[in-house]
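Sync notes, pocket subgroup
Present: LS, DG
LS reminded everyone that the earlier model was apo-only. Rerun requested with zinc ion included. Inputs:
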Amino acid sequence: MDGNSATAIQNGFMKVRFLGTGTGVPSLHRLSSSCLLSMPEGSVLIDVGPSVVRRLLEFGFTLEDIDIILLTHFHPDHTADLATFLFACNYGEPRRTRDLVLLGGQGLELFFRRLCLAYPSIRPKSYSLTIRGMIRDVWSLWDGVTVETVPMRHRQESIAVKFKGKKTIVFTGDTDYSGDLVSFATGADLLVSECSFPDLKAKGHLNLAVLEKIVERAKPKQVILSHLYPEWETFRGVLHAPFLLAEDGLEISL
Ligand SMILES: [Zn+2]
Ligand SMILES: [Zn+2]
């Protein structure tokens, strides 16, 4: 862990580091969306798109720091570096020995089996891997920390995920408007939401107006917009609290 993470853990905070805030569109400014959630009990990597493994190193983490990888869905901008991660666990120096958990939505085990057919060398060699598909589910990760999932409207396996520890943090993954998301995010301390475009409304994604409608109903204390297409770079509007536009490297402590 880097110095900041160590401080967060001593203070008992939940901490979110935005490793990437972009999409599948290649960008020098934004990596594909991925977050690292660090808690005193352990660390969860939420989505692992292209170059996320390298980005972890840039921010001072190692792969051994990650206890859980959670995939919100299987699109490449959320999963392409999963094989990179697992391959490095087998052949890095030292080899991984720490247990790893892989969480995702419907069809996770099949997705993993197919990935292993393409890349047999990613099968765990020196550590134990637990794979758990979560559709509409709650699971106790550690003492006092639960993870909860609910299906979203993007791909059939898409899920939003809620971590409840000292605080409550919800990650939407990619999604269109969903009544389930409104109830799921109600009262959250932090909602990390996809907001693909400022104005354009694309099927399976949110724009600012639709996200505002969700936030008006769910009333999370803070909302951070991520999964940002290049249209955001020319956005000239002003976001008011509780909204904040994410940047790669942004850190939030709760
Ligand atoms: Zn995406
Ligand atoms: Zn997607």
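DG: The radius of gyration is 17 Å.
LS: Residues 153 and 178 are 7 Å apart (CA to CA).
Action: DG to write up.
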